[in-house]
Amino acid sequence: MPALSPTMEMGNIGAWSKKVGDKIEPGDVLVQIETDKAQMDFEYQDYGYLAKILVEEGSKDVPIEKEPQVEVEVETEQPTQQTESAQTIAQSVTKTDRIFASPVARMLSKEHNIPLETIKGTGPKGRILKEDVNRFLTTRQEQKPQVTEEKAAPQKKAAPAQTPTPAQTPVQAAYTDIPNSNMRKVIAKRLTEAKTTTPHYYLTSNVNFDAILKLRADLNASANGKFKLTVNDLIVKAAACALRAVPAVNSSWNDEYIRQYHHADIAIATSTPTGLITPIVTSVDTKGLETISSEIKSLAARAKENKLMPHEYQGGSFAISNLGMYHITSFSAIINPPHSAILAVGTVEPKLVPDSTSEKGFSVINSLTFTLSADHRVVDGATGAQFLSALKSYIENPMSMLL
To answer: Where's the Peripheral subunit-binding (PSBD) domain (predicted)?
Structure first.
């Protein structure tokens, strides 16, 4: 199993695009592999014929190898010899004493202390499958001698009649065990490492959101249906401008140096049916709102369909997590390494504020709460405060970020 992403430790085997005996050339798609983040086509980079498939379609949690090789035997084509037919090469594979079994079958046989050589495999080339192990267990259970219940001795006195009881209600299971996907395992591992090894601190700021809501309404009205900006699109742009103003936050930690990025590559936390993923909008500081909005929509759609390419969700220099649509007032997010900060966005709420120009002495504004989680190794408290101050300025004076 090849490592198709830096965080990948195991993968699932999807559909094989080639069958035993097929000729393979560089660039041919050999098999689909489900990584911790997406499902990808694995392309073979040599000439030859597929001689044997060692890991069957649908196999789960196949560990990666240090060298990027799929578990498949390929009979290499010799350029100086006449090419044999696919059928001849498929039949010429040398037989060994190795017992072929799926990972699940091996696990079950080990769990029940069953030697693999005692099980007859029904898979390709006699491969032992999970069903073969279960069939063996069932047969063994049926062959066990039945214990005959001893006949009770006759009673001298009949026992008193018992009052019949109503039929018992079937007992409902108390819980359901849901297997962890590769993505969920990686999320758990990475966030645990981030929370335990990165010295987080948190800063919170409330901003007046009236001006940016008005700008969004005006821009959408002038677009005549060509595009429709979201609140999040404007927040992403404002964050990029703030990163440009306070570049120390647009950085990552290394034991020997701090890497400061020249552009704001912002990862947008996106919920999918299989877990959280962070597709990246690159160079947000150089792009207009229409482009930013289009790219966010495209990345989010493909993330939910599990179709992102590795370069679209790996890396980045900063992250934003927005839960405002769920009416969350405020929250603190966990930093996603190698980023040094993540911005948590709450919901827009009405708020009373003092207003000397009003007859009532107060007015109602639309308020929003930002919470910055920062890595104290990279971003000092004062630097984090400067970033939130710059962000507040762009949000409350949004025309300045369009200049």
So the answer is: 100-137
* CATH of the domain spanning 10-91: 2.40.50.100
List pLDDT tens digits, range 75-103.
444 444 444 444 443 444 444 456 888 87
Please state, in angstroms and rounded to a whole number, the distance separating the CA atoms of residues 229 and 339.
Answer: 26
Residue in the block written with tokens 């214990």: 147
CATH superfamily of 200-402: Chloramphenicol acetyltransferase-like domain (3.30.559.10)
Could you give the CA distance from residue 389 to residue 400 in angstroms, rounded to a whole number?
14
d(CA 383, CA 239): 15
How many alpha carbons fall within 13 Å on the CB side of residue 291?
A: 9
pLDDT, tens digit, 9 for 90 and up, residues 183-228 = 888 889 999 999 999 999 999 999 999 999 999 999 999 999 899 9
**Are 281 and 265 a contacting pair, CB within 8 Å?**
yes
Active site amino acids: 376, 380
Instruction: Report residue 30 as tokens.
Output: 């050999």
**pLDDT digits over 251-300, tens only?**
999 999 999 999 999 999 999 888 889 999 999 999 999 999 999 999 99
DSSP state of 5: S
Domain with CATH 4.10.320.10 in the chain: 103-139
Q: At the topology level of CATH, where does 103-139 sit?
A: Dihydrolipoamide Transferase (4.10.320)
CA angle 273/279/281 to nearest 5° reads 150
Instruction: Report the pLDDT averaged over residues 61-88.
Output: 50
